[in-house]
Amino acid sequence: MTMKDVLDELAATRRTMGTAELPAGDAYTIELRRHYDAHPDDVWDALTSPERLSRWLGPVSGDLRPGGTFALDGGEHGDILRCEPPHLLRVSWMFGPEADEWPGTSEVEVRLSPGPSGGTAFELVHAAAVGEPMFPTYGPGAGGVGWDLHLLALATLLGGGGTLDHEKFQASPDGREFSRRSAAAWGEAHLAGGGDPDQVAAAVEATTAFYLPDPNAPTGTGPR
């Protein structure tokens, strides 16, 4: 993958912020919309087949059916709330065992529809309860940069390019530039959504520092 390919993929996604209601109350949303050349059935299979899901999102286990549960090896887990093939998938999206103490605070919904000139219109909406701890520091980049990286991996898979090695890519010059520009793009979405300019600038700086860490800086927790 060339730098042009990486930047073209970054530009292919439209990023916005919005609001939603979750079982736990008011929520903010980070929203990603883009087009994939693949047929909706192929994209749906990549979203729901454990073997293909592992190649762009991560190894998954659980009772993968409506009403069941899932768990990713990175610690993300939840319940499968709606599954309407091949158009809509909604899951609760929790990270770490402590998150289970606050049910109904985070959900991800993916919607697929035929594109106007073929392929698939893809929408991903991640809703998180207002007041969740990552937002004040990282803004929408708390989840947005990670989703950008995963959707790049999905594009690679759907395009026949195989599996993107997340760790290797993120450590590469192309991957670092992708993360830097993704953090900036989420800052633009935050501003467009009414964010305070000073808070947005601080959030972009914090997100960028997390994804492009100083090798001499102490490690810590950050966006998921």
UniProtKB/TrEMBL annotation:
Superkingdom field: Bacteria
Cross-referenced InterPro entries: ASHA1/2-like_C, START-like_dom_sf
One Pfam family hit: AHSA1
Residue span, Activator of Hsp90 ATPase homologue 1/2-like C-terminal domain: 37-158
Annotated family: Belongs to the AHA1 family.
Listed name of the protein: SRPBCC family protein
